[in-house]
Amino acid sequence: QVQLVESGGGLVQAGESLRLSCAASGRTPAINAIGWYRQPPGKQRELLASISSGGDTNYADSVKGRFTISEDIAKNTVYLQMNTLKPEDTAVYYCNAGLHYSGEYYPSINYWGQGTQVTVSS
Asked: For a tag site, which of 5, 11, 105, 113 has the least CB within 10 Å?
């Protein structure tokens, strides 16, 4: 099974940047991708970006051009670089281990981290 731990969140002002990390331990043969999600207060969890083990990526329109997902295979870590942060980016950010298939990300039910809080002030 896979265990995921998010880190790197914090309190920043609008326009600043943060880099989140998702550290994975353990492996499941069926898992070949990581997705970054966020859940603002009182709202649904949404997919922001995903990356496959082969480096294929996709992004939500809301963060395209501002956020970048990347991976360090040797460190078993996936990153989310978040630039030009806005107050509406305030949320708990989660990573999930899942699958890439035909260019889309499919999350697993069981493999979620505990989340890391990102707060952006104006």
From this structure: 11
Residue 83 has pLDDT above 80, yes or no: yes
Residue keyed to tokens 């002030």 = 121
Residues 4 and 97 sit within 8 Å (Cβ to Cβ): yes
Backbone angles phi, psi at 74, to 5 degrees: -60, -30
Amino acid at the residue 64 = K
For the chain, the average pLDDT equals 94
Q: Virtual CA dihedral for 26, 39, 50, 31, nearest 10 degrees?
A: 30
- The CA distance from 74 to 20, in Å, is 17
Read off the tokens for 116. Answer: 């890391």
d(CA 59, CA 109): 20
Taking the alpha carbons at both ends of the chain, their separation in whole angstroms is 40
Give me the count of residues in the chain: 122
